[in-house]
Amino acid sequence: MIEFRNVSKSFKEKKILNQVHYTFNDTGFYVLLGESGVGKTTFLNILSTLDQDYKGQIFFNEKLLDKKKSCRQFLNQQVSYFHQDHLLFNHLTVMENLTLFHSSKSTSFSVWELLKEFHLDKFADKKVMQLSQGEKRRVALIRTLLKPANIYLFDEPTSFLDDENKRKVLEKLKALSKDFLVIVVTHDYDVLEYAETVLKLENGNFTLLKEAKEKKIRGWQAVRYQISLLNRSKIAIHHLLDFKKKSFFSVCILFLTFTFLFLSLVIKNFDIYEIEANTLVKNNSQIVFFDKSTSFSNEEIKFLSNSLNTEIFIGKKYFVNDNYLNFSYDYTTPIYYRYLNDTFTFYEITPTILDDETVLGSLPTKPNEILISSYLADLLIYYKDYQNYEDVLQNGILNFGEYSFKISGIYLQEVQEYDCFKTMTKPHLNLKESALYTAFYEEVMSFQNMIYVANNFVLKNDNVSYTTDRVYVKLSSKKEFLKAFNTHLEDMTYHTMYTVRVLSYQNELSFLSMLFQYISLFFILLYIVIVINYLFNTVSKYHKERRLFTINGFSSLKIFSIYFFEIVFLQFFALLFSFLFALGIMYFINLEVIKQVFFNFYPMFFTSNTLIQFLLIFIAGTFVSLLFLFFIFRKK
Predict the structure, then answer these.
(1) Which of 66, 146, 528, 595 is the most buried (most CB within 10 A)?
(2) Which DSSP state fits 295?
(3) Which tens digits make up the pLDDT trace of 189-248?
(4) What is the pLDDT of residue 321?
(5) Are 629 and 562 in contact (CB under 8 A)?
(6) How confident is the model at residue 392 (pLDDT cuts 50, 70, 90)?
(7) CA distance to 157, 214, 216, 256, per residue, from 178 (Å)
(8) With contact defined as beta carbons under 8 Å apart, do 260 and 516 qualify?
């Protein structure tokens, strides 16, 4: 039972309702007549609690409807409201519109039965925007009938309907009124023959034209009416598709924002140790050198051994004057053979420092035997007319001042990818060739002047000076490398085959990080402008949809969530594309650039610091977008 007690409503000086006092029964077919503009729709809005700006009191089952929450629950659980504006989702199909809302209680009607009865079954998968006004009217009527409720309100339900469909609708409402309260506002006097009670609204009061013969009382149960998270997401996606160009542009701008922001964080969190360790493991390079400007003491060597839990190999560097090979070349000489240093230093070798498969011939054991690099062997073949490595091992002699040494072995270097320099003589290299030459110099040529000797080396005497300013270790795992890089002694530095090259990129990376941060800031500002414009347009365009949610008693939070999902989807797609783009960059670097510079950049992209910082910025961006949405939502 619904009771109006002295309810009044005015627009400016016009009285719409004036001290209305009336009680509606639990069931029955009520018809409200009245001239246009007299306030019939306003009455329905007040009865449904959509309009709470009135004087007086409204009681439902003897409980006063005076709180916003109780009014919304009443509207959601007790009322099904047919609005004369249809309030359909034009971008959804007929079936999607009818099944958009879900209830824990089954409806009194079958969707397909109603569609067939109103000749709409063939339009079930058709978009609402493709229907005529009469067809839209019938879809909206079916949706109203499908909602489980106790009070059914209809505002001009027979408009735009032909006689046959009008009769079907009125018969449905008549049957419905046997168990529920049905109130119809209309100008159509054909409705009167189905009505049990007829009221006329004039001068702000009800005039009773026809009264029901009997009053049926029944208990009303609350039926919760809700829209699922999936359907709210579906509406959000359709909104995005409805603004294809703006949505696409927003995703592109956000994609660029995320990409540059991600890259700036990546470079900012660039871990040189991580990169170097992974590169060493990837290329199976095992040696880490430790250098000092003075010789290592026994205590320092012991400290390194204990810290790294491995054997320390000591290299002794012997100094000999006038130890030149006197190779002569000019710019017609292929680049490969243009050696840059003909001064040599000698290192005592520990047999375990080199793998057997990397040595051709044998390790030096006699005082006058030496082990040279394969690159130095290539120079001897080119300049000294040796035939091949075998010839070098059999007949190779190197003279340094008064000392002559027999070449007992050659340690093999990976030089196949640099074979192009064996025929290349041009003075200027392009970018790709320069990168390859840098790798060639650091990994091949720089080892040319290192000659390994036995521990009973002939120069090991009081007349020849030496230092122990270099020690080295043989490691294999990333963990061991990182531990070595983070071991510190005063005046000690480390280097590997890749240290110089990794360090050379730090200045460039610092500049890129700053540049990407500024670019990111620009795109962030641009995105804010775009997202405000997008949200303003979508909130404005779909105001009727918001009214449908309000009519069905949904909270502002549920309505707000639809627009929130739009922001989330925009950011999700942009984030997905940024992620794929980052993977593409990684693929390019590791499969293309690696061929020339041998870096392993994988850990550079997805470090925990980078991901955490990016996630925090992403959350902050979402929060700011929500604030804009909330402001626009409240304004509209």
Answers:
(1) 146
(2) P
(3) 888 989 999 999 988 888 888 887 766 655 555 555 567 777 788 888 887 877 788 788
(4) 55
(5) no
(6) very high
(7) 19, 11, 8, 62
(8) yes
| pLDDT of the residue at 457 | 80
177 and 27 in contact (C-beta within 8 Å)?
A: yes
Strands (E) across 212-278 are located at 225-227
Give the model's pLDDT for residue 409: 93
- The reply to whether the predicted model has a pTM over 0.70 is no
CA distance 459 to 316: 11
Contact indicator for 182, 149 with CB cutoff of 8 Å? no
Tokens linked to 373: 């690099």
State how far the Cα of 49 lies from the Cα of 7, in Å rounded to an integer.
Answer: 13
Tokens 């979508």 locate to: 538
At 185 the pLDDT is: 92
User: Residues 215, 30: contact at Cβ < 8 Å?
Assistant: no
CA distance 372 to 547: 86
How many angstroms separate the CA atoms of 180 and 216, rounded?
Answer: 10
| Residue 344 · residue 377 · CB < 8 Å | no
Three-class DSSP category at 63: strand
Residues contacting 475, CB < 8 A, separation 6+ = 280, 286, 287, 288, 308, 310, 481, 484
Ramachandran region, residue 103 (left: φ > 0; alpha: ψ -120 to 50; beta: rest): beta
One-letter identity of residue 569:
F
Residue 351's alpha-carbon distances to 280, 314, 354, in angstroms, are 21, 12, 6
| N-to-C CA span, the chain | 35
